[in-house]
Amino acid sequence: MKNSIILLCIILLASCKETSKEAQELPITEKTEHNSTSAEPAKKKPLSPHTSAMAMVGDAHIHIDYSSPGVRKRIIFGGLLPYDTVWQAGAHMATWMETNKDLTIEGKELKAGKYGFFVIPNQEEWTIIFNTNWNQHGKDEYDEKDDVLRFKVTPKISEEIQEHLEYKVTKTTDDSGTISLSWEKVFIEFPFEVK
After folding, report:
1. In the chain, what's the furthest Cα-to-Cα distance?
2. According to the 3-state scheme, what is the secondary structure of 144-158?
3. 3-state class of 15 per DSSP?
4. How far apart are CA 95 and CA 135, in angstroms?
5. What sign results for the dihedral spanned by CA atoms 112, 149, 178, 120?
6. What CA–CA distances, in Å, run from 11 to 2, 8, 14, 62, 164?
7. Which of 21, 46, 136, 141 has its CB surrounded by the most CB atoms within 10 Å?
8. CA torsion through residues 106, 110, 114, 118, sign
9. Which Pfam families match (predicted)?
10. pLDDT tens-digit profile of 21-74?
């Protein structure tokens, strides 16, 4: 009986020490968290985050660099972005695409290099444009004479809204793939082959 009481006292004493230790540590943790919060204000998420899409298709490394605007309850095509007008296919700086190998798109050659990627949206068809002036703000310096490749694609319309602009480079065979763009309710895609 005496041993049971001693054992019970040891357990209670150890338990009290553990509780006391936790109570002492708690205010320090709260203080540390509080100080770090007040020292660093929460960063706002950008409305058009900078991002990229890339893939290896055969020996070709395809890289698309763009800023991804959101729909934010707006009418985008035919509203914010008027039809039949050149658009830099992203926010802020012009979207650009780089390939380290020559590609064939719509039966035409796109030499290895870095290109501004522009589009002219329309309800019936979009014009896709690769332009040598890849480093420009928006379409401020866009000039049709710098186009190296132009072709048309038919947009697909979805019932679902794609909130942020998204590009994808998808490998379909060892030496071919597709490039797609989706935003709001519009999806466009075109195939390419590595030469």
Report:
1. 100
2. HHHEEEEEEECCEEE
3. helix
4. 9
5. positive
6. 14, 5, 5, 66, 59
7. 136
8. negative
9. DUF2911
10. 444 444 443 333 444 444 556 678 889 999 999 999 999 999 999 999 999 999
